[in-house]
Amino acid sequence: MRLQKISKTSFFIATTLLTLLITACYPDHNQSTFDPQGPVAASQLNLFWWIFIGGMIVFVLVEGALVYAMIKFRARSESDIPAQTHGNTRLEIIWTAVPALLLLIIMVPTINGLFYMYEAPKLHQANHVLEVIGHQWWFEFRYPDPNDPEKEIVTANEVYIPVGYPVPLNLDSVDVIHSFWVPKLAGKTDMVPGEGNYMWFEADVPGEYYGQCAEYCGTSHANMKFKVIAVSEPDFKSWLQVQSNPALESSDPLVQEGAGVFKSAGCTGCHATKTVVNKGSKGRVGPNLAHVASRRNLAAGMLRNSDENGSVNDALLQKNLRTWLQDPNEVKPGNLMSSGAQVYTDPDKKLTEEQISQLVHYLSSLK
Ligand code: CUA
Q1: Is the CB of 217 under 6 A from ligand 1?
Q2: Domain 246-367 class?
Q3: Among the atoms of ligand 1, which is closest to the Cα of residue 178?
Q4: Mean pLDDT in each 10-residue stretch from start to end of the chain (367 residues)?
Q5: Ligand 1 centre and the CA of 59: distance in Å?
Q6: Hey, which residues does 278 pair with through a beta bridge?
């Protein structure tokens, strides 16, 4: 009776875990590595299949031999002692040589893949080197300014790439180790402060690709997301052009009031609203907000501003901005704005509902 109970429970746990495991492989999932949409992810998946299938064959052979031996040489009665064997040179040579040979075989596609990842083929086509800088807990992106190669344009948490072109990426971090991961485009690469790192990826088809920090980096590690949006080359160029200009100034009085609050409340201390900076210059503490109202997500992917078709929904954006400004810690626990900005740390300076409304108007005007 008791045994039956235990086996029922373990059956339950086993099937639940198995279901979860299978869900993780579901290719339609936004962060599935089983649906590569670019050559780097495809080559990595290919390597995975080689190793996985090879591993399965080894598993079946070894476990098969084990089960066979257990049954065939079992003790048949209380007094029966099965034949005792100590050492078998031929067998030992075989089971050392075969795995060594298998490792040698796996080494070929692995090293091939490493070289492939290290440098983008057709690099001459890649005129858009993307700098990615990790922050607790958001991603900063920089491209060379299309109008002045000595300058860079800065954006955050959402970056466009041209379809069909390799995009080389320089990865860095300002605080702790993060890891850059866009599952459908390429595997993870660590972002090591002061060390830098390099990778590349390419998208075969236009689309919105989910990215996620993949190295534990503190309280909101799981909330450190981003989007890569792959578009045609002309669309990419016009996006870059838009990004290189400051947001349009609105004469709407509410917006103007909001711009005033943005300065007086100290937001400008950490957030820039101009995108062009000197090449390699140190970034601000907070994400660049020059075109925040054109981004599909807010708070590094935590709040979605866009409709199904990807266009920003103003009502949704304003609602999200309000949610974020009222209590950023609710959306992203541990974020630096909550612990560092006086409007959140000093009850006397707390933003009033009116100020929040003005800020929402201002920020949602930054297209
Ligand atoms: Cu950044 Cu985890």
Answers
A1: yes
A2: mainly beta
A3: 1
A4: 67 86 74 91 93 92 93 86 86 92 91 86 75 94 87 92 93 95 95 92 94 94 94 93 84 88 88 85 85 86 84 87 89 89 88 90 89
A5: 35
A6: 151
